[in-house]
């Protein structure tokens, strides 16, 4: 059985890296000093398990437990350890550390698996500093050229490759060298469904499409006290109208979020000359996602015309919905049943590394409930009992897959 | 007659201090290094005119040309040399440097005036870093305690008094020591009216009320991909709705502007937990201004209730409308007529130091047209001819007042 105490302790310890005591959360954004500290900790734990550690050119970390036989493609268990700002301790870390717990179970039983088990921590899953999100797994899956990825500019003016080298995680493994036989990812749901239904395990059979855009509204700066309302080209006012209209797009299962907004010159008595905001659109249905994108474009075009103002939109990220491997999903459901855990099939609202690896290998995900449906927030929480239930399912699925 | 070439040259030279060649504007925000440089330049010009220079505890600069007789209250000509970000070269500087041009005309004519003429440059008129705006003149007029003012926190976390001392302009004159007999301020209109009507000189008889508030919307951070729309407490979405409603407040002569807006955590895939924005409301009519404030409060209260979200508003600045001295305004109109310049009576949309000095002395203002009504923008412009026309009116009014 899985050693739950070590897993829970490691989650707590990793969660202390980048901690902000005043805010009660932690900020371990990709390729910052805090991310480096988290990576260093992860490597020490991998070394203690005597894993064969390899780091690729985009900074993905792979720790492999050798198999008894000869060279075979590994069963991979992955997720990420980077975070958003003021994050909880579970998003990503839970899946990586549960992977270590699975390996530890094999080590402690004194048996070598019938095929290698690789625990992967992918670079920059959150995508808050460098876009796109799920970047490390996307590069690994061949969906993004590694040199292009290394050249990504950050929201803070840095270049991804420079920051990766700076923190010492620019490895030499060519991305994509380690193609898994199958891929499993254990994650907190980050949404309210499992808790609301009182279900213990989510069997993730698909994942919604993600469209990220950056919208720039170009008005004209002028004096707030002297410019008649009808002569204004107020970028903030037009941006606010656009954002208000977004509510009408977010219907029938489409989600729409404006997470970032910035005004220029951002002074109290100056009509803003510029507003820049991001739009995150999601839908499990590609046709509906395209319709939402179309409606957004129409709203922006209409506003540009009626307000006599320049608006343009740049696509930052676009991922189509993903359907996971049904055989692997069934195996997860079977393991949950065997362990006496209630479960349901479900859609992932969040993007995950599994969606990228699904391009090159059969992949599926296991979810555990998120208390209050809260994530990307220091109050993100799942009970120890449910965290261990999820890890038990993961271990059981791994055992079943390796026993075949 | 007034030496126009020196005035135009000084406007250009002062406008080069804090210049940003890429943006084609200048940023000389109160009590920054650029403000210090501008002040140093102004002092050198005052010294060249052998003015008696005094600096008070809030950093207001007074340069006085002695009168022929004994001690009398001065005729004061004032404005400011601090700027917003990416500003034009005229806002404020024009009035101060025209004051020097008036003094220079007396110097060059070799006559001492019948009463002292004091040229004043007031600290922090723009109020973009430290609120309230018109701070130096407000302190001078006894409307704000100097020690309170020195304790003002900046938008950048600094303390006004520290920055004033740092740039070496914390004088020892007790504010309010120099009460003027009368006060005149020459300024660009910063709005479109004079140009639209083809009028050369604005005789400013009143100035609208100004209400600045900072609104904070407190939502709850959550994941953009997993949180159903109906379970969100999205601070950005609520702020956008509030800003959109502001258009309905800005009717019948009321102006409403949102110049600053900031989200937290401001990440692309996180529903914002907080939005902070400023509202600038103006109206020449106090009753209407109060009605607008009431409507804003109602909108915010209604949104807080319907969205189940906490919203609060903090008053940053509140100045009632000001009526200028009618006798002084008539004198301006008479001078414009005498010089063959077209003129009209008008209301100032912008706040000005004159509105504060009006509390302690008869005050009025002279406006010249702003090309395209543009200000707080590097494209702020007035032709040399009109700049000189305004200065000629100022000199003529000063001569008339001193001749009485
Ligand atoms: N799981 C997770 O929070 N991923 C970040 C990418 C996204 O879904 O926005
Ligand atoms: N004249 C001027 O721009 N003053 C700044 C204060 C304001 O009106 O916002």
Give a verbal description of the structure.
Two copies of one chain form a homodimer. Chain A is an alpha+beta fold and 404 residues long. Helix content of chain A is 36%, strand content 23%. Chain A has twelve helices and 18 strands. In chain A, the strands form four sheets. In chain A, strands 3, 4, 5, 6, 7, 8, 16, 17 and 18 form a nine-stranded mixed sheet that branches. In chain A, strands 9, 11, 12, 14 and 15 form a five-stranded antiparallel sheet that branches. In chain A, strands 1-2 form a two-stranded antiparallel ribbon. In chain A, a hairpin with a 4-residue loop joins strand 1 (19-20) and strand 2. In chain A, helix 1 packs antiparallel against helix 3, helix 8 (235-249) packs antiparallel against helix 9 and helix 10 (326-338) crosses helix 12. The two termini of chain A are 19 Å apart. The relative contact order of chain A is 0.17. At the A-B interface, strand 10, helix 8, strand 11, strand 12 and strand 13 of A face strand 10, helix 8, strand 11, strand 12 and strand 13 of B. Bound molecules: N-(aminocarbonyl)-beta-alanine (2 copies). One N-(aminocarbonyl)-beta-alanine sits between chains A (91, 125-127, 133, 190, 350-352) and B (223-225, 269). Chains A, B: GO terms for molecular function: hydrolase activity. Chains A, B: This is Zn-dependent hydrolase. Chains A, B: InterPro entries: Amidase_Cbmase (IPR010158), Bact_exopeptidase_dim_dom (IPR036264), Peptidase_M20 (IPR002933), Peptidase_M20_dimer (IPR011650). Chains A, B: Pfam families: M20_dimer, Peptidase_M20. Chains A, B: Residues 208-304 form the Peptidase M20 dimerisation domain.
